[in-house]
Amino acid sequence: MSLYINYPSWLDPYVVSFLPVRWYAVMYIVAFALAYFLYEYQVRKDGCTDLDKEGRQSLFLWAVVGLLLGAHLFSVFFYSDASFYLTHPWLIFWPFRDGEFVGLPGMSYHGGVVGALVGGFIYSRIKKFSFLTQVDYIVAGIPLGYTFGRIGNFINAELYGRISTLPWAMVFPTAPSFSSSEEWVRNIADQCGMTYEPGAFVNLPRHPSQLYEALFEGIILFLILWFICRPLIRKHALKPGSMLSFYIFGYGFFRFFIEYCRQPDANIGYVIALGKESDNIAVFQSFLNISKGQMFCLMMMVSAIVLFFIVNRRKKYGYESAGKRKNK
After folding, report:
1. Whole-prediction pTM value?
2. 260: Cβ–Cβ under 8 A, 6 or more apart, which residues?
3. How far, in Å, are 124, 224, 239 from residue 54 at the CA level?
4. How many structural domains are present in the chain?
5. Residue at 134 is within a domain
6. pLDDT at position 317, please?
7. Separation of first and last alpha carbons in the chain
8. What are the pLDDT digits (tens) for 196-228?
Protein backbone atom coordinates (compact mmCIF):
# COMPACT_ATOMS: atom_id res chain seq x y z
CA MET A 1 0.00 0.00 0.00
CA SER A 2 1.39 3.40 -0.99
CA LEU A 3 1.60 5.84 1.92
CA TYR A 4 2.34 8.94 -0.14
CA ILE A 5 0.81 11.13 -2.86
CA ASN A 6 2.10 11.50 -6.39
CA TYR A 7 2.36 15.05 -7.70
CA PRO A 8 -0.72 15.69 -9.90
CA SER A 9 0.28 14.80 -13.46
CA TRP A 10 -2.34 17.14 -14.90
CA LEU A 11 -0.64 20.24 -13.48
CA ASP A 12 1.38 22.14 -16.06
CA PRO A 13 3.58 25.13 -15.13
CA TYR A 14 2.67 26.84 -18.42
CA VAL A 15 -0.70 28.51 -18.85
CA VAL A 16 -0.78 27.43 -22.51
CA SER A 17 1.76 25.14 -24.13
CA PHE A 18 2.60 27.45 -27.05
CA LEU A 19 3.42 30.54 -24.94
CA PRO A 20 6.26 30.96 -22.38
CA VAL A 21 3.86 32.21 -19.71
CA ARG A 22 3.93 30.34 -16.42
CA TRP A 23 1.20 30.09 -13.86
CA TYR A 24 3.75 31.38 -11.34
CA ALA A 25 3.86 34.73 -13.16
CA VAL A 26 0.05 34.82 -13.31
CA MET A 27 -0.13 34.11 -9.58
CA TYR A 28 2.24 37.02 -8.93
CA ILE A 29 -0.11 39.33 -10.82
CA VAL A 30 -3.11 38.00 -8.88
CA ALA A 31 -1.21 38.47 -5.61
CA PHE A 32 -0.35 42.10 -6.37
CA ALA A 33 -3.88 42.87 -7.58
CA LEU A 34 -5.47 41.36 -4.47
CA ALA A 35 -3.07 43.16 -2.13
CA TYR A 36 -3.81 46.47 -3.84
CA PHE A 37 -7.58 45.86 -3.69
CA LEU A 38 -7.41 45.24 0.07
CA TYR A 39 -5.21 48.33 0.48
CA GLU A 40 -7.77 50.51 -1.31
CA TYR A 41 -10.64 48.95 0.63
CA GLN A 42 -9.12 49.84 4.00
CA VAL A 43 -8.12 53.37 3.03
CA ARG A 44 -11.59 54.19 1.74
CA LYS A 45 -13.32 52.53 4.68
CA ASP A 46 -11.26 54.54 7.18
CA GLY A 47 -11.48 57.74 5.16
CA CYS A 48 -7.72 58.26 5.22
CA THR A 49 -6.79 61.39 3.24
CA ASP A 50 -3.00 61.16 3.43
CA LEU A 51 -2.83 60.20 -0.26
CA ASP A 52 -5.20 60.46 -3.20
CA LYS A 53 -5.82 57.44 -5.43
CA GLU A 54 -3.07 58.38 -7.86
CA GLY A 55 -0.63 58.72 -4.99
CA ARG A 56 -1.62 55.33 -3.59
CA GLN A 57 -1.14 53.71 -6.96
CA SER A 58 2.31 55.28 -7.27
CA LEU A 59 3.24 54.19 -3.75
CA PHE A 60 2.15 50.63 -4.48
CA LEU A 61 4.14 50.63 -7.74
CA TRP A 62 7.27 51.87 -5.98
CA ALA A 63 6.85 49.13 -3.38
CA VAL A 64 6.37 46.43 -6.04
CA VAL A 65 9.45 47.56 -7.97
CA GLY A 66 11.44 47.64 -4.73
CA LEU A 67 10.14 44.18 -3.88
CA LEU A 68 11.25 42.67 -7.18
CA LEU A 69 14.66 44.32 -7.04
CA GLY A 70 15.26 43.45 -3.40
CA ALA A 71 14.06 39.85 -3.81
CA HIS A 72 16.42 39.22 -6.71
CA LEU A 73 19.40 41.00 -5.18
CA PHE A 74 19.04 39.07 -1.91
CA SER A 75 18.85 35.82 -3.86
CA VAL A 76 21.96 36.71 -5.86
CA PHE A 77 24.11 37.83 -2.94
CA PHE A 78 22.87 35.62 -0.10
CA TYR A 79 21.81 32.39 -1.81
CA SER A 80 23.97 32.26 -4.95
CA ASP A 81 27.63 32.75 -5.85
CA ALA A 82 28.02 36.35 -4.70
CA SER A 83 31.68 36.53 -5.74
CA PHE A 84 30.75 35.62 -9.32
CA TYR A 85 28.14 38.36 -9.56
CA LEU A 86 30.44 40.90 -7.94
CA THR A 87 32.92 40.28 -10.77
CA HIS A 88 30.14 40.03 -13.39
CA PRO A 89 27.60 42.65 -12.21
CA TRP A 90 26.04 43.01 -15.67
CA LEU A 91 24.66 39.47 -15.31
CA ILE A 92 22.65 40.27 -12.16
CA PHE A 93 19.65 41.44 -14.18
CA TRP A 94 20.51 39.74 -17.48
CA PRO A 95 17.48 37.53 -18.35
CA PHE A 96 19.30 35.14 -20.70
CA ARG A 97 21.44 32.08 -19.95
CA ASP A 98 23.18 30.15 -22.70
CA GLY A 99 21.07 31.91 -25.31
CA GLU A 100 17.78 31.01 -23.60
CA PHE A 101 15.38 33.44 -21.94
CA VAL A 102 15.10 32.52 -18.26
CA GLY A 103 13.80 35.80 -16.80
CA LEU A 104 15.16 36.62 -13.34
CA PRO A 105 15.44 33.26 -11.55
CA GLY A 106 15.96 33.43 -7.84
CA MET A 107 13.72 35.51 -5.59
CA SER A 108 14.18 35.87 -1.82
CA TYR A 109 11.10 36.76 0.19
CA HIS A 110 13.15 38.43 2.91
CA GLY A 111 14.86 40.56 0.30
CA GLY A 112 11.48 41.39 -1.18
CA VAL A 113 10.27 42.76 2.16
CA VAL A 114 13.35 44.95 2.55
CA GLY A 115 13.12 46.15 -1.05
CA ALA A 116 9.41 46.98 -0.81
CA LEU A 117 9.91 48.96 2.40
CA VAL A 118 12.85 50.87 0.93
CA GLY A 119 10.92 51.63 -2.28
CA GLY A 120 7.86 52.81 -0.39
CA PHE A 121 9.90 54.87 2.06
CA ILE A 122 11.76 56.68 -0.74
CA TYR A 123 8.45 57.59 -2.38
CA SER A 124 7.05 58.82 0.94
CA ARG A 125 10.05 61.13 1.37
CA ILE A 126 9.53 62.50 -2.13
CA LYS A 127 5.81 63.17 -1.65
CA LYS A 128 5.96 64.00 2.08
CA PHE A 129 3.30 61.75 3.59
CA SER A 130 3.15 59.34 6.54
CA PHE A 131 4.89 56.20 5.33
CA LEU A 132 3.95 54.08 8.35
CA THR A 133 0.24 54.89 8.06
CA GLN A 134 0.11 53.78 4.43
CA VAL A 135 2.35 50.73 4.82
CA ASP A 136 0.12 49.48 7.65
CA TYR A 137 -2.81 49.45 5.25
CA ILE A 138 -0.76 47.62 2.62
CA VAL A 139 0.70 44.82 4.76
CA ALA A 140 -2.67 43.86 6.26
CA GLY A 141 -3.69 42.32 2.94
CA ILE A 142 -0.34 41.04 1.70
CA PRO A 143 -0.60 37.53 3.22
CA LEU A 144 -3.74 36.75 1.24
CA GLY A 145 -1.96 37.74 -1.96
CA TYR A 146 1.12 35.80 -0.86
CA THR A 147 -1.02 32.66 -0.77
CA PHE A 148 -1.29 32.73 -4.55
CA GLY A 149 2.47 33.11 -4.91
CA ARG A 150 3.07 29.89 -3.02
CA ILE A 151 0.39 28.13 -5.05
CA GLY A 152 2.40 29.24 -8.08
CA ASN A 153 5.48 27.58 -6.55
CA PHE A 154 3.47 24.39 -6.10
CA ILE A 155 2.29 24.41 -9.72
CA ASN A 156 5.93 24.88 -10.77
CA ALA A 157 6.82 21.86 -8.59
CA GLU A 158 9.55 23.93 -6.93
CA LEU A 159 10.52 24.86 -3.38
CA TYR A 160 9.35 21.44 -2.20
CA GLY A 161 10.24 20.38 1.31
CA ARG A 162 12.33 17.77 2.97
CA ILE A 163 11.79 14.05 2.61
CA SER A 164 8.94 12.81 4.79
CA THR A 165 7.02 9.65 5.64
CA LEU A 166 3.79 11.48 6.46
CA PRO A 167 0.76 10.16 4.53
CA TRP A 168 0.33 13.49 2.69
CA ALA A 169 4.00 13.64 1.66
CA MET A 170 4.29 14.06 -2.11
CA VAL A 171 6.63 12.79 -4.81
CA PHE A 172 7.66 15.82 -6.88
CA PRO A 173 8.88 14.96 -10.41
CA THR A 174 11.55 17.70 -10.27
CA ALA A 175 13.07 16.52 -6.96
CA PRO A 176 16.42 14.69 -6.97
CA SER A 177 16.47 10.95 -6.42
CA PHE A 178 18.67 9.01 -4.02
CA SER A 179 20.39 5.66 -4.40
CA SER A 180 18.70 2.75 -2.66
CA SER A 181 22.16 1.44 -1.87
CA GLU A 182 22.03 3.81 1.12
CA GLU A 183 20.28 2.40 4.17
CA TRP A 184 18.38 5.55 5.07
CA VAL A 185 16.88 5.68 1.57
CA ARG A 186 15.71 2.08 1.79
CA ASN A 187 14.23 2.65 5.25
CA ILE A 188 12.15 5.62 4.11
CA ALA A 189 11.10 3.94 0.86
CA ASP A 190 10.00 0.86 2.78
CA GLN A 191 8.02 2.93 5.28
CA CYS A 192 6.21 4.64 2.41
CA GLY A 193 5.45 1.39 0.61
CA MET A 194 7.57 2.26 -2.44
CA THR A 195 8.88 -0.44 -4.75
CA TYR A 196 12.39 -0.21 -6.17
CA GLU A 197 15.17 -2.29 -7.63
CA PRO A 198 18.30 -2.87 -5.51
CA GLY A 199 20.76 -0.06 -6.15
CA ALA A 200 18.23 1.97 -8.16
CA PHE A 201 17.63 5.66 -7.55
CA VAL A 202 14.41 6.48 -5.73
CA ASN A 203 12.44 9.74 -5.77
CA LEU A 204 11.27 9.90 -2.17
CA PRO A 205 8.12 11.70 -0.91
CA ARG A 206 8.57 15.23 0.44
CA HIS A 207 6.67 17.79 2.46
CA PRO A 208 4.49 19.95 0.18
CA SER A 209 5.98 22.93 2.01
CA GLN A 210 4.64 25.40 -0.58
CA LEU A 211 1.13 24.51 0.61
CA TYR A 212 2.18 24.77 4.27
CA GLU A 213 3.38 28.30 3.56
CA ALA A 214 0.27 29.19 1.58
CA LEU A 215 -1.82 28.12 4.58
CA PHE A 216 0.13 29.51 7.53
CA GLU A 217 2.06 32.47 6.08
CA GLY A 218 -0.84 33.26 3.81
CA ILE A 219 -4.38 32.47 4.89
CA ILE A 220 -3.90 32.07 8.64
CA LEU A 221 -1.63 35.11 8.95
CA PHE A 222 -4.14 37.16 6.95
CA LEU A 223 -6.99 36.13 9.27
CA ILE A 224 -4.91 37.04 12.33
CA LEU A 225 -3.97 40.46 10.96
CA TRP A 226 -7.42 41.26 9.56
CA PHE A 227 -9.69 40.02 12.32
CA ILE A 228 -7.50 40.23 15.44
CA CYS A 229 -4.75 42.80 14.91
CA ARG A 230 -6.82 45.45 13.11
CA PRO A 231 -9.49 45.61 15.85
CA LEU A 232 -6.77 45.48 18.51
CA ILE A 233 -4.95 48.43 16.97
CA ARG A 234 -8.10 50.52 16.89
CA LYS A 235 -9.27 49.53 20.35
CA HIS A 236 -5.98 50.55 21.96
CA ALA A 237 -5.23 53.41 19.54
CA LEU A 238 -1.83 51.94 18.65
CA LYS A 239 0.42 54.10 16.52
CA PRO A 240 1.15 53.77 12.77
CA GLY A 241 3.74 51.06 12.24
CA SER A 242 2.03 48.64 14.62
CA MET A 243 0.42 46.59 11.85
CA LEU A 244 3.77 46.42 10.05
CA SER A 245 5.39 45.05 13.20
CA PHE A 246 2.60 42.46 13.62
CA TYR A 247 2.99 41.39 10.00
CA ILE A 248 6.78 41.09 10.14
CA PHE A 249 6.67 39.13 13.39
CA GLY A 250 3.86 36.84 12.24
CA TYR A 251 5.52 35.99 8.96
CA GLY A 252 8.89 35.41 10.61
CA PHE A 253 7.29 33.19 13.28
CA PHE A 254 5.42 30.93 10.86
CA ARG A 255 8.25 30.79 8.33
CA PHE A 256 10.82 29.91 11.01
CA PHE A 257 9.02 26.69 11.92
CA ILE A 258 8.02 25.78 8.37
CA GLU A 259 11.71 26.01 7.46
CA TYR A 260 12.19 22.78 9.41
CA CYS A 261 10.12 21.15 6.66
CA ARG A 262 11.99 22.91 3.85
CA GLN A 263 15.32 21.68 2.58
CA PRO A 264 18.13 24.25 2.88
CA ASP A 265 19.97 25.20 -0.28
CA ALA A 266 22.51 22.50 -1.10
CA ASN A 267 25.27 25.09 -1.66
CA ILE A 268 24.65 26.63 1.77
CA GLY A 269 23.39 23.95 4.13
CA TYR A 270 23.05 25.02 7.75
CA VAL A 271 24.50 28.24 9.13
CA ILE A 272 24.21 26.79 12.65
CA ALA A 273 24.54 23.02 13.09
CA LEU A 274 24.30 22.16 16.79
CA GLY A 275 22.29 18.95 16.42
CA LYS A 276 23.83 15.53 16.93
CA GLU A 277 23.38 14.95 13.22
CA SER A 278 23.59 17.52 10.45
CA ASP A 279 25.09 15.58 7.56
CA ASN A 280 21.90 15.06 5.53
CA ILE A 281 19.95 18.23 4.72
CA ALA A 282 17.35 16.22 2.78
CA VAL A 283 15.78 14.97 6.03
CA PHE A 284 14.97 16.60 9.35
CA GLN A 285 17.56 15.68 11.99
CA SER A 286 17.43 18.28 14.76
CA PHE A 287 15.71 21.50 15.82
CA LEU A 288 19.21 22.80 16.59
CA ASN A 289 20.19 22.83 12.92
CA ILE A 290 19.35 26.32 11.66
CA SER A 291 19.20 27.42 8.03
CA LYS A 292 19.99 30.83 6.60
CA GLY A 293 16.28 31.40 5.98
CA GLN A 294 15.61 30.80 9.68
CA MET A 295 18.28 33.31 10.64
CA PHE A 296 16.51 35.92 8.51
CA CYS A 297 13.22 34.97 10.20
CA LEU A 298 14.75 35.47 13.65
CA MET A 299 16.00 38.87 12.51
CA MET A 300 12.48 39.69 11.30
CA MET A 301 10.93 38.80 14.66
CA VAL A 302 13.47 40.80 16.66
CA SER A 303 13.09 43.77 14.29
CA ALA A 304 9.30 43.59 14.61
CA ILE A 305 9.44 43.73 18.42
CA VAL A 306 11.86 46.67 18.34
CA LEU A 307 9.72 48.48 15.75
CA PHE A 308 6.53 48.00 17.79
CA PHE A 309 8.00 49.58 20.91
CA ILE A 310 9.68 52.40 19.00
CA VAL A 311 6.57 53.52 17.10
CA ASN A 312 4.31 53.26 20.14
CA ARG A 313 6.59 55.45 22.22
CA ARG A 314 6.46 58.23 19.65
CA LYS A 315 4.02 61.06 20.38
CA LYS A 316 2.09 60.96 17.13
CA TYR A 317 -1.46 60.43 16.03
CA GLY A 318 -2.99 57.01 16.42
CA TYR A 319 -5.21 55.21 13.96
CA GLU A 320 -8.37 56.92 15.09
CA SER A 321 -7.15 60.24 13.76
CA ALA A 322 -5.08 58.95 10.85
CA GLY A 323 -7.94 59.41 8.42
CA LYS A 324 -8.49 63.01 9.47
CA ARG A 325 -4.97 64.22 8.77
CA LYS A 326 -4.07 65.92 5.56
CA ASN A 327 -0.74 66.64 3.93
CA LYS A 328 0.81 69.93 4.89
Report:
1. 0.90
2. 284, 287
3. 13, 29, 25
4. 1
5. yes
6. 47
7. 70
8. 999 999 999 999 999 999 999 999 999 999 999
